[in-house]
């Protein structure tokens, strides 16, 4: 029987909530994703994954239609197994000792499966975290270790649970890691942005829809609701532009928002997590942009219990 061939940026295996969330996240950035699964669709066909072969620059998967045995070979940049998808979908991680990576290392990922404690909510969190990182890699502005940060951030999340989890990873600019813990601070770097509307009918997800977003907020400790405008923001904008990273600046004067974020300058990632915050724009915007896109990461701090 002759095999058909198909090309796509990302092959998503699994048609449950996690797989469809990942498809939607990739679509936000115009990434071509193909979704396949035994109870779902692949171009309106039910199918199963019969074999997967990762290479340095691609992944090839053999899909079989259980109804008539028709075979389609899909070539993708990455393959992501979701919603309990099983063998032969084996991730090929990079070696922890820094040795030479195996062929295809980092080309196969899992979302919401094979992690202790992972449930539906955690799986969706996996998809949101991985989605923007795959899109950044495909669009050419991701640093060399941005995709590696997926495991660094999401493995602890499965243990800690989705509520209140804080990423302490190499792509979070956390200058407050050594500060005494404040259980009432909802906007520490590495935390999801506080669940408060930024303005009428404007949420965090609206401002990060296409990329990173800098929030300029009224000084939370000032009696005036003025948005600060010190020098430094144009340099930050230029640093993002030079790296090709999508970026926008948004001003909000609501004092309630300012108090929830604690500091007047807050940089949000595409997944709605706080990447950095400060009382003034960053002193070295190029270094900050490189860090949060995984180009020059700082060593990950040792996790601590608080």
TrEMBL record:
The lineage of its organism: Bacteria, Bacillati, Actinomycetota, Actinomycetes, Micromonosporales. It comes from Micromonospora sagamiensis. This is FAD binding domain-containing protein. Residues 7-35, 117-159 form the FAD-binding domain. Its cofactor is FAD. Keywords: FAD, Flavoprotein. The keyword Flavoprotein applies. It comes from the Bacteria. Gene3D superfamilies: 3.40.30.120, FAD/NAD(P)-binding domain. GO terms for molecular function: FAD binding; oxidoreductase activity, acting on paired donors, with incorporation or reduction of molecular oxygen, NAD(P)H as one donor, and incorporation of one atom of oxygen. The keyword Flavoprotein applies.
């Amino acid at each position: 029987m002759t095999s058909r061939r198909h090309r796509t940026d990302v092959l998503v295996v699994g048609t449950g909530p996690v797989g469809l969330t990942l498809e939607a996240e990739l679509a936000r950035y115009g990434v071509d994703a193909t979704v396949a699964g035994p109870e779902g669709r692949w171009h309106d066909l039910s199918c199963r994954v019969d074999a997967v072969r990762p290479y340095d620059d691609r992944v090839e998967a053999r899909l079989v239609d259980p109804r008539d045995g028709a075979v389609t070979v899909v070539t993708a940049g990455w393959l992501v197994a979701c919603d309990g998808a099983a063998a032969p979908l084996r991730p090929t991680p990079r070696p922890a000792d820094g040795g030479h990576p195996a062929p295809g290392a980092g080309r196969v990922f899992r979302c919401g499966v094979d992690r202790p404690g992972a449930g539906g909510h955690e799986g969706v969190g996996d998809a949101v975290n991985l989605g923007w990182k795959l899109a950044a890699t495909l669009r050419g502005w991701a640093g060399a270790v941005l995709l590696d940060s997926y495991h660094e951030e999401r493995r602890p999340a499965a243990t800690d649970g989705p509520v209140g989890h804080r990423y302490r990873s190499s792509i979070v600019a956390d200058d407050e890691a050594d500060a005494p813990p404040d259980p009432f601070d909802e906007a520490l770097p590495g935390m999801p942005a506080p669940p408060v509307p930024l303005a009428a009918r404007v949420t965090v997800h609206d401002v990060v829809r296409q990329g990173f977003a800098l929030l300029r907020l009224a000084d939370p400790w000032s009696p005036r609701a003025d948005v600060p405008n010190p020098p430094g923001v144009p340099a930050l904008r230029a640093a993002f532009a030079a790296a090709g990273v999508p970026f926008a600046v948004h001003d909000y004067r609501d004092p309630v928002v300012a108090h929830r974020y604690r500091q007047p300058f807050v940089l949000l990632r595409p997944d709605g997590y706080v990447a950095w915050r400060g009382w003034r724009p960053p002193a070295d915007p190029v270094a900050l942009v490189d860090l949060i896109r995984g180009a020059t990461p700082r060593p990950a701090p040792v996790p601590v219990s608080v």
